[in-house]
Amino acid sequence: MFRKLAAFVVALLILPGLAAAHGPTRQKASETITIDAAPDKVWAVIENFGDMSWHPRIAMADAPKGNEKGSVRTLGFTTGGMMEEELSKYDAEKMTYSTFIGHVNTDLLPATNYSATITVKPAEGGAKSDVTWRAAFYRGYPNNEPPAELNDEAAVTGVSAFITEGLENLKKTVESGS
Amino acid sequence: MSGRFHRQHRAAAHRRAALGLAALVALATGGAAAAGDVAYVTSQEAETLSFVDLDAMKVEATIAIPGKPAGIAVSRDGRRAYVSQPEARQIAIVDTVSRKLVGEVDVGGGPLGIAVHPSGSPVYVADWYSHSLLLVDPEKRAVVGSFETGKSPSGVTVSTSGEVVVTADRDSNQISFFAAETGEVIARVTVGERPFGVSFSPDGDRVYAANVGSNSVSVVDARGHFVIRTVPVGSHPYDAVETMDKVFVTDQYGGTVTVFDPTSGERIDQLDCCDYPEGIAPGTDGAHVYVANWFANTLDKIDAASLDVVGSVDVPDGPRAFGEFVRAAPAAVGSAETTDTPGQ
Fold first, then answer.
1. Which of B3, B120, B148, B205 has the largest count of CB atoms under 10 Å?
2. Mean pLDDT over residues A165-177, rounded?
């Protein structure tokens, strides 16, 4: 015990750099948009996991296993680059599903370990809809002293932008009837 | 996390009697009466510790704890809370009667999981970066030793007897059993992928390890040191505790609490209750379990018999409550002696 203690004290003295380490903490982002259409109209646009054409950054999507739990969709981005996203929860009755991206391409989204839930709920007595998209994730750089483009703030900003653009375009898509 | 049921059951009865007395005294003297259980909830984003009255499901007080607080441990007498502050590389010492931060101990590294010996000392702190379990003397407010764990230890728990300490060594896919007295390694047991939370069964026969990476809980024989079975649970389990002959598991990404039979491993239910549930702990009488919902910023109360959510309270942003975060309320200052239970 004493020998261990002595070794530990020495380690603390000679390794101040290591002692300064700490890990990243999980971040969250959440946004709700009100769409001027009934919930089933909105749900009809997003219900197919293999179709993410309602998001302006997505050029193509494909999910061979459809809407079953564990289904994986491949997303092709308009800027180039691909990512795979897994369907972890799907409930058509509640108009909600949850997804998970284990290996995020940080060029496309500056985060890691990204999980998200999108839910459609009635608003104003069912004449309109509230769509909420929430995500939990870690910053893009998992170790200490992240570069500015991959720190906590960049992760929140980046994911929030991805969500906002998606929801705004979903609103546009539904409300224009296209 | 609990691991102290049988004794606690008896102790709780003693304590309730003592508390009843203390409450009478407090009422007679016009002071605040000690109530039932209190939850000590760490909120990582808000950097706070909240004191929740679990009978009323009401936040009684919230204090600032800098450094992204995560782990929590409370002494058996309920008078001291210890909080890990990963970003500040410290642990905080909180007086739960005055509800004040009374000291900080610089431990270096990446302190995360935390537990306190039944005697009140030492405080065990899992250091994510040095791959060791640090022993902190809360009186001296200093690190006085360390045990060698596997890589990135996260959860830590102590047996009811105080003889055995167990760590979940996340990046080694194992749990380590230590003799508390000597630090000698009793066993290293390979479990599932990336075990995070770890706890003893109330009877001390089993240890549960929540495997974040393989969506399962390893049920480990606490005396023979082998895996009895691996039970599938929801997505990204965080922690598991046994109470009322059921094991409750928080599935972070699944948003569920999986409930299974401790002896057969068979699933009893999967509660679609929660929102990135993380810390989970039973109350002192075992009738309820409490779950911190990291995303929704709530603490939920689940009836361990009916499996219904029977209460919820808002807490500050990012509650983690990683550790044994529920204790009987401390007696008011001056009556502490009356609440000391035999056999501790």
1. B3
2. 96
- Residue B202: alpha-carbon gap to chain centroid: 13
Least Cα distance to A96 among B272, B235, B94 occurs for B272
Task: Give the whole-angstrom CA distance, residue B238 versus residue B215.
Answer: 9
pLDDT of B290-315, one tens digit each?
A: 999 999 999 999 999 999 999 999 99
Tell me how far CA of residue B2 lies from CA of B214, B225, B299, in angstroms: 23, 19, 18
Under a CB-based contact definition with an 8 Å cutoff, are residues B26 and B266 in contact? no
The CATH number given to A23-176 is 3.30.530.20
Inter-CA distances, A20 with A138, B76, B87, Å = 20, 32, 9
Task: Compare CB distances from B129 to A12, A18, A117 and report the shortest one's residue.
Answer: A18
> Closest approach of chain A CAs to the CA of B212, in angstroms?
12
Amino acid A23: pLDDT: 61
Q: Is A22 on the interface with B (CB under 8 A)?
A: yes
Rounded to two decimals, the pTM is: 0.82
Quick check: A116 and A144 in contact, CB under 8 A?
no
Which tokens hold the place of B254?
């699944």
Identify whether B122 is preceded by a cis peptide bond (ω within 30 of 0): yes
Q: Cα B314 to chain center, whole Å?
A: 20
DSSP H/E element including B17: helix B5-29
Cβ A25–B130 below 8 Å, yes or no? no
Who contacts B46 (Cβ-Cβ below 8 Å, separation ≥6)? B316, B317, B318
Q: For the residues of B242-310, what is the DSSP string, one character each?
A: EETTEEEEEETTTTEEEEE-TTT--EEEEE---SSEEEEEE-TTSSEEEEEETTTTEEEEEETTT--EE
Residues B52, B38 contacting (CB under 8 angstroms): yes
Nearest CB to A19: which of B89, B144, B295?
B89
Task: Write out the H or E segment, with its range, that includes residue B157.
Answer: strand B153-158
Q: Which amino acid is at B99?
A: R
How far is CA A59 from each of CA A77, A80, A82, rounded to the nearest angstrom?
Answer: 5, 9, 10
Task: With CA atoms as reference, report the closest residue to B332 among B55, B26, B59.
Answer: B26
Mutate to test the interface with A, among B276, B293, B297 (most CBs of A within 10 A): B276
Q: Which of A16-20, A43-47, A102-106 has the lowest mean pLDDT?
A: A16-20
Q: Which domains does chain B have, with CATH numbers?
A: 5-330 (2.130.10.10)
